[in-house]
């Protein structure tokens, strides 16, 4: 998160994350050599510091390093590596910037919506200035009069008048005024003369360019397209060229060779390894080039390009008409790809060679997409569960989420803090439950974003303020020992009470996570038994709703939070998704390009909710899956052709390694190893993956036959 060239470019400082140190590299002839480490604390798990952003004071020889985990500013003498002081901060810091003019160190308080001014001589906080949400990168004007602060959780950059200690101007970095948050401005840079400001908008994949020569009167010059998720922009002082770090590189791609191989491990095809970052080098554009770049950015953006609803489509609310769909059930499952489950469908864009949990294991998934709609061009917006549950419930993953999960999943430290209880991770607009609360829509959650009961007599607790009083008290969240059948039974008790007494909430979230599996741990369900009982629980929910008085006015949406645990021949993000309702089409292949945000937007339209981010605002609603007239024929749950209580035996492939894995929370296990264990458990210990089949990521328009 922090890099700083010092001593005329001869040395480089790099933050050491959860190693709790600053690494010092010698730089010569284009090569780096580790020369020293400045130790702040013992490495994890002995201490929680997490060195984030840093800067260096050339005059005093002091290094300033932000400690994310323990909310500190650490001051280290470079000459001997001595930690001189660890200053407590009022909130999670992102980075620090030594003023070249004033005796200050500026610290952006990532979790505090403020910038702290720290006195370099005393180490005391002189003042804090309120800015936007999630302040991160900063740039000081050459004369020291202004500090530009990127507010990643808003669409803005705050301009602080340093002498006055207050915000003199707020710059909107998005393409249009009034759009929801979601641009994620997280990097800023000024030209040498301080006249032009470049802003890296991570979630828009472009730079916003402003003329900032006149104080308080910033003027937009246009936009420059860059790569995927730009996290940093700098101006090279010698040439004025721009250098942009694209956090996710260029594009997504298929992963048919993993991450569950039966031959030597294809670690590069695990979704967390697919995105190799890249650098863009851009000449400073003249007015003609800026005009061309800007036109390209607007052409690439979906903002301001609404998808018109077909006449009579039941997704849209219409004034003066009774709402045809009044109850939405949102079922969130865990980590499967499309090909893993639907590869054997025989229609749609499927690859049977990659199918692990076909119709024998998942008869209800297969029956439901045959009776209703098969979605063969649906993609998770997320890469893993950490951002997955944020996308499924908020149509957005904040910069905090995107920048911290890779270290956690890469085994480099960090807690799983992504499903409530950690406000630093929350989108500024909150989640679907917040949206319901703000707009008077009734809601309830069954296991999603909840803390499980701890002791006898305890009840589940919602992990967000908006879930107080809206949480099913006896329905557990993540717990692989708690069967998805039991989750169904706990949900069904309340559903029957609502059917008898009225008051069914308009929006319900139901967690069914056990298709995650538990590897080959002896005495635990086999992977296919886990998936089979997950499938049966889904079938039972749909069966129960379809035989209730609420069926005609209901829609059931089903999605995996992410697709990280398997291969897919189209794209590593393609996943299992279903939409089931009397108002959906029958025996239909819908190949329209959809994502998680499309599903969220569709539910918002049904419930009369405004969008929460630029993603659901601009997503294609699932109009093509719906019909103008209902078919109220019911659904009957199918039984699996295998034993859903089948247990792993000792001596199975990966059994000993599975025993060592931590299944107490989502994605705590080494994904590549677990995926290989699951593959061999289902296909046989000596099975080999088929030869890779490459496909392009394309948009395909649906039809009755899926062509």
Describe the protein's architecture and organization:
With 707 residues, the chain is α+β, with helices and mostly antiparallel strands. Among the domains are: 1-119, Methylamine Dehydrogenase, Chain H (7 Propeller); 327-683, Alkaline Phosphatase, subunit A (3-Layer(aba) Sandwich), CATH 3.40.720. Helices cover 18% and strands 26% of the residues. The chain is built from twelve helices and 34 strands. Strands 27-30-24-31-32 form a five-stranded mixed sheet, with helices on both faces. The chain has a four-stranded antiparallel sheet with strand order 1-2-3-4, with no helix packed on it. α3 crosses α8 and α7 (484-501) runs parallel beside α8 (527-546). The radius of gyration is 26 Å and the shape is globular. It starts with a strand and ends in a 24-residue tail after the last helix. Residues 261-267 and 688-707 have low confidence and may be disordered.
Index terms:
34 strands; alpha+beta; 707 residues; 4-stranded antiparallel beta sheet; Methylamine Dehydrogenase, Chain H; Alkaline Phosphatase, subunit A; 5-stranded mixed beta sheet
Brief account:
With 707 residues, the protein is an alpha+beta fold. It is 18% helix and 26% strand.
Class based on secondary structure composition and strand pairing: alpha+beta
What general form does the structure show? globular
Number of strands: 34
Strand content: 25-35%
CATH-derived topology of the domain at 327-683: Alkaline Phosphatase, subunit A
Question: How far apart are the first and last residues' alpha carbons, in Å?
Answer: 46 Å
The total of helices stands at 12
Mean pLDDT: 89
The gyration radius over C-alpha positions equals: 26 Å
Low-confidence stretches: 261-267, 688-707
The CATH first-level class of the domain at 327-683 comes to: Alpha Beta
Strand line-up across the major sheet:
27-30-24-31-32
CATH-assigned homologous superfamily of the domain at 327-683: Alkaline Phosphatase, subunit A
Q: Mind describing the biggest β-sheet?
A: 5 strands, mixed
CATH architecture of the domain at 327-683: 3-Layer(aba) Sandwich
Approximately how much helix is present in the residues?
A: 10-25%
């Amino acid at each position: 998160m922090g890099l700083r060239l010092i001593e005329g470019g001869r040395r480089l400082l790099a933050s050491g994350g959860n190693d709790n140190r600053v690494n010092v590299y010698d730089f010569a002839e284009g090569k780096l050599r580790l020369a020293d480490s400045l130790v702040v604390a013992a490495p994890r798990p002995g201490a929680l510091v997490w060195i984030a952003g840093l800067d260096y004071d050339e005059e005093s020889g002091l290094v300033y390093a932000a400690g994310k985990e323990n909310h500190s500013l650490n001051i280290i003498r470079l000459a001997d590596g001595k930690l001189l002081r660890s200053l407590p901060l009022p909130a999670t810091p992102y980075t620090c910037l030594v003023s070249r003019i004033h005796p200050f160190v500026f610290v952006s308080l990532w979790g505090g919506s403020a910038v702290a001014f720290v006195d370099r001589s005393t180490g005391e906080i002189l003042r804090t200035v309120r800015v936007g949400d999630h302040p991160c990168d900063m740039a000081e004007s050459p004369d020291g009069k202004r500090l530009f602060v990127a507010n990643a959780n808003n669409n803005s950059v705050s301009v602080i008048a340093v002498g006055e200690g207050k915000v003199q101007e707020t710059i909107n970095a998005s393409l249009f005024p009034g759009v929801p948050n979601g641009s994620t401005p997280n990097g800023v840079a000024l030209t040498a003369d301080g006249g032009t400001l470049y802003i890296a908008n991570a979630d828009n994949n472009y730079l916003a360019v402003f003329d900032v020569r006149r104080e308080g009167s910033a003027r937009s010059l246009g936009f420059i397209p860059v790569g995927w998720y730009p996290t940093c922009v700098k101006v090279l002082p010698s040439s004025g060229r721009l250098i942009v770090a694209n956090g996710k590189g260029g594009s997504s791609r298929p992963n048919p060779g993993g991450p569950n191989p039966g031959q030597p491990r294809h670690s590069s095809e695990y979704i967390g390894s697919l995105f190799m970052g890249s650098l863009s080098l851009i000449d400073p554009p003249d007015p003609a080039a800026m005009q061309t770049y800007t036109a390209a950015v607007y052409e690439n953006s979906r903002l301001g390009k609404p998808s018109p609803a077909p006449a009579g489509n039941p997704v849209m609310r219409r004034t003066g008409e009774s709402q045809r769909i009044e109850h939405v059930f949102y079922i969130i499952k865990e980590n499967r790809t499309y090909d893993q489950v639907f590869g054997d469908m025989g229609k749609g864009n499927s690859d049977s060679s990659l199918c692990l949990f076909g119709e024998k294991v998942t008869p209800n998934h297969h029956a439901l997409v045959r009776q209703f709609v098969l979605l063969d061009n649906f993609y998770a917006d997320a890469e893993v569960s950490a951002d997955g549950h944020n996308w499924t419930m908020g149509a957005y993953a904040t910069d905090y989420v995107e920048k911290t999960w890779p270290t956690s999943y890469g085994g480099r430290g960090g807690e799983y803090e992504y499903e409530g209880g950690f406000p630093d991770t929350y989108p500024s607009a909150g989640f679907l439950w917040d949206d319901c609360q703000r707009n008077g829509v009734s809601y309830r959650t069954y296991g999603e974003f909840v803390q499980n009961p701890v002791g006898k007599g305890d009840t589940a607790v919602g992990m967000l303020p908006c879930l107080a009083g809206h949480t099913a008290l006896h329905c557990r969240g993540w717990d692989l020992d708690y069967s998805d059948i039991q989750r169904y039974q706990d949900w069904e008790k309340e559903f029957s009470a609502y059917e008898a007494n009225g008051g069914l909430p308009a929006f319900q979230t139901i967690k069914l996570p056990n298709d995650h599996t538990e590897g080959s741990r002896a005495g635990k369900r086999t992977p296919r038994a886990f998936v089979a009982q997950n499938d049966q629980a889904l079938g039972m929910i749909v069966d129960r709703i379809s035989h209730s008085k609420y069926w005609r006015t209901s829609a059931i949406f089903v999605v995996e939070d992410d697709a990280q645990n398997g291969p897919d021949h189209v794209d590593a993000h393609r996943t299992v998704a279903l939409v089931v309702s009397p108002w959906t089409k029958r025996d239909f292949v819908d190949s329209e390009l959809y994502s998680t945000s499309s599903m969220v937007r569709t539910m918002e339209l049904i419930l009369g909710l405004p969008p929460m981010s630029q993603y659901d605002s601009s997503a294609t609603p699932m109009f093509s899956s719906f019909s103008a007239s209902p078919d109220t024929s019911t659904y009957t749950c199918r039984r699996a052709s295998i034993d859903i209580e089948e247990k792993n035996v000792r001596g199975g492939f990966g059994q000993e390694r599975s025993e060592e894995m931590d299944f107490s929370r989502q994605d705590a296990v080494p994904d590549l190893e677990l995926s290989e264990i699951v593959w061999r458990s289902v296909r046989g210990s000596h099975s080999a993956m088929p030869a890779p089949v490459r496909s392009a990521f394309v948009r395909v328009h649906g039809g009755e036959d899926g062509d």
